[in-house]
Amino acid sequence: MPSTDLQTVLDHFYHWEKTKPDAVYLRQPFGDSFRDYTWSEAGQQARQMAAYLRSLGLPPGSNVGLVSKNCAHWVIADLAIGLAGHVSVPFYPTLTAEQLNQVLVHSGCPVLFVGKLDNWPGMRDGIPGGVRCIAFPKEYEGSPVGEMNEWYGLLTDVTPQAESPVPALDSLQTIVYTSGTTGLPKGVMITYRASAEAMEHSKAWLELDQPKEPVRFFSYLPLCHIAERSLIESGCLVSGGTMYFAESLDTFQKNLVAARPTHFLAVPRIWTKFQMGILAKMPPEKLDRLLNIPVVSWLVKRKIKQGLGLDQARILITGAAPMPTELIRWYERLGLRIQEAYGMSENLGGHTFSRPTHRKLGTVGQPYPGVETRIDPDTGEVQMRCSWMTTGYYREPALTAALFRDGWLCTGDMGELTPDGYLKITGRVKDMFKTSKGEYVVPAPIEFGFATNTYVEQVCVAGASLPQPIALVVLSDMGRQADRAAVAESLAQTVQAVNPGLKHYEHLRKVVVVNDAWTVDNNLLTPTMKIKRNVVETRYQPSMERWYGREEVVVWEE
After folding, report:
1. Which residues span the domain enclosing 521?
2. Residue 7 falls within a domain, yes or no?
3. Considering the entire predicted model, what is its pTM?
């Protein structure tokens, strides 16, 4: 059973700083080399920056902002904010100036760390007047060192903070802004108690509790998102492991291979990308043939896992969105067992987990110890309660009140509980749409039907105000290189395979192949690579009726 003697993230840091000061904590790639930060070195810089923050005379518990891509100084800055007695408020590094201004004004941050960014010029005008900005060191590409005080310059004559404050458990540790898939971002308030409870109840299942072998993490999903923050940053603090980073999108694979993580988190979109990369080098027919030859199969699996950088992985996790069962089975044939996790910012990502010994495909696992789960009998919504739920949304009392029902947190997801306690997610309440026939359609189960079609990389089922739903698809590299007639035939076959398992009003009428991929840059994906359904539907709505009226089943966007 989890201990009642709770340790905060800072308690864990103090422990490793004292017991293994010379062990590598953070590994930051720069080209072909790494800059390593030991627990002692990271602590030295965090304590210096904490002393500087305290010198500013801010009221205790002030909100301090942080906008940067993942890097070593992101973590060090986060520690410094806590050491100084303030609240860490991280923001997505992909925000526009308008979006950054919105969350900075809402959070009221008097200080903002500005770090490794792809488009600082497109963000700088969003900084409200009076906000004190601190730039990460100049070695990080995109750091605006020439426009504001720089990290090392500020710390030249600063004496490191000697004390190791223990925060009150019920004090605020961080405000995590949601990615805003359907509306404006909300600031999820998380206390030190909540994060400590979440870590305490999940560490055994995640194999972070007294690991027998060194633990390595690879950090590339936004650290301002709860999944990366909880599993990677906090997981590293709990286990005393080493945290590697990706330098850029171009070096991602090289950096992942160098890290060879023992614990790896990816969203379904990443797992699909990996699959497409493998199949581009080895066509499905050839791969299937080789995997059926015993000795050759072992060699092929080893080569693929080494090529991905996952040959040392003990825990492979998918989260943020449901993952098709067919894709999980495909990876299992390669010897990669992916475990589904389910949660949200409002419960620190800690709701259910698929353990290797307690696993049922088609579900997202069983609730962690200490979690109660129920299904609303009227709406089918998944609701939960535990000791690490958010205290609410920052400065949003009405939204906070709507989040809870009789002490239960309303997830917004639709689901089912099996008799033996496994949770199955069937869709999002807000993702449902009504056809012109007045029938409600849940898109996720229909979209899963495209998981086995290697010509498809992204899919969004839509059709509000249409008689029947249609599927908007983005082709994979394989699909774009294939003959159009072959793609059309394959997609039509997928429709024929999917429709018989659906209710009549859910039957797909059309598949529309769209021209442009959905990305974070064109605002069709969130920073965690979930489809912004409302934005996608708005973009294609003017053409949907015309596409629907075409005779052919598969239509190409003009």
Report:
1. 432-556
2. no
3. 0.87
